[in-house]
Amino acid sequence: MSKRILVILGHPAHNSFCAALSDSYINSARDEGHNVCLLALGNLAFDPILHDGYQQVQPLEPDLLHAQQLISWAEHLVFIFPVWWGGIPALLKGFLDRILLPGFAFKYRSGSPFPEQLLKGRSADLLVSMDTPPWYYRWVYRMPALEQMRRTTLGFCGIRAKKTLTFGPVISSSERQRETWLQQARALARRH
Questions:
Q1: Domain architecture of the chain: domains with CATH
Q2: Which residue of 21, 143, 186, 191 sits 20 to 30 Å from the alpha carbon of 108, by its own alpha carbon?
Q3: Is 133 helix (H, G, I), strand (E, B) or coil?
Q4: pTM > 0.90
C-alpha cells in the first residue's frame, strides 16, 4: 500500500553523506510506489531563532508554512541528520522550534500537565550519521540527540518513532562501508 512520506534533511550541505542517505531512501521509496516529498532544510528561508520564546507569536515565513502543510499531508516522516556535539544540528533544532507550535503540533488542556497530541497517527524513522562510533554514543553518551527526537519532540506531538539507523563513524569510513549504509537506507524505504 502506497504511503505519503516526507523526508526532512537536517544537514545544510547538499554534498553531505546525509544528503546521499536522503537520495537513497527517496529513490527506493519511490520505486516501491510511495508518494515522497523532500524538505531540505538548507534550502529554506527562515529565521531559526525563536526570539521571544513562546511568549509572543512569531509569524511563520512562507517556507515554514509550507513545511507545516507537508507535515500535515504526510503519514510517515523520515528525519535524516548528523549528530554534532552530541545533539541535533542547530538548523534542525531551529526548524523544530519554529514549526512545532501549540495549535499545530500539540494543544494544552486545562487541568492536565499533558497536552493533546495533534500529530498523532503519524510515524517516523531517524537516519543519523555521526563521527562517534554508534556503540560509544549509545552506551557512554546515552544518545541525547536520539532521545530528544524520539521522546521529547516527536513523542510529545504524537508522532510514533519506529526505526532508528545510526551510521558511523563517517569520518573514517571507507567507500564500501558508506555504500553498505546507503543500502540499509534503501532497505528501510522498501519496508513501508
A1: 4-190 (3.40.50.360)
A2: 143
A3: coil
A4: yes
